[in-house]
Amino acid sequence: MTEITLYSSNYCPFCIRAKQLLDGKGISYNEIRVDGKPEVRAEMARLAGRTSVPQIWIGDTHVGGCDDLIALERSGKLDTMLAG
């Protein structure tokens, strides 16, 4: 299974939804919280080119945010990406 990294914030509804989707599929992920950590948020923004959360990577591929993750799931591409 390919490693998933998810930058998130505690009360972000999009972060919660993305984690619910992954949890519902039984997929583990490495969650990095950016709350109160400007240096971590800055690193995420540098890597993603975006400042909003969540920002999600599957392996070395930047997927984007929650809407992007849901689109991958709906198109059937998420499972393929996770299988590596």
Automatic annotation (TrEMBL):
Q: Which GO terms describe its biological process?
A: cell redox homeostasis; cellular response to oxidative stress
Role of this protein: Has a glutathione-disulfide oxidoreductase activity in the presence of NADPH and glutathione reductase. Reduces low molecular weight disulfides and proteins.
Show the GO cellular component annotation of the record: cytoplasm
- Family label: Belongs to the glutaredoxin family.
Q: PANTHER family under this entry?
A: GLUTAREDOXIN 2, GLUTAREDOXIN-1-RELATED
- Alphabetized UniProt keyword annotations: Cytoplasm, Disulfide bond, Electron transport, Redox-active center, Transport
Q: Where is the signal peptide?
A: none
Lineage of the species this protein comes from: Bacteria, Pseudomonadati, Pseudomonadota, Gammaproteobacteria, Pseudomonadales
Domain Glutaredoxin, chain residue ranges per copy: 4-63
Q: Name any one Pfam family assigned in the record.
A: Glutaredoxin
An example of a GO molecular function for this protein is:
glutathione disulfide oxidoreductase activity
Q: What is this protein called?
A: Glutaredoxin
Q: Which domain of life is it from?
A: Bacteria
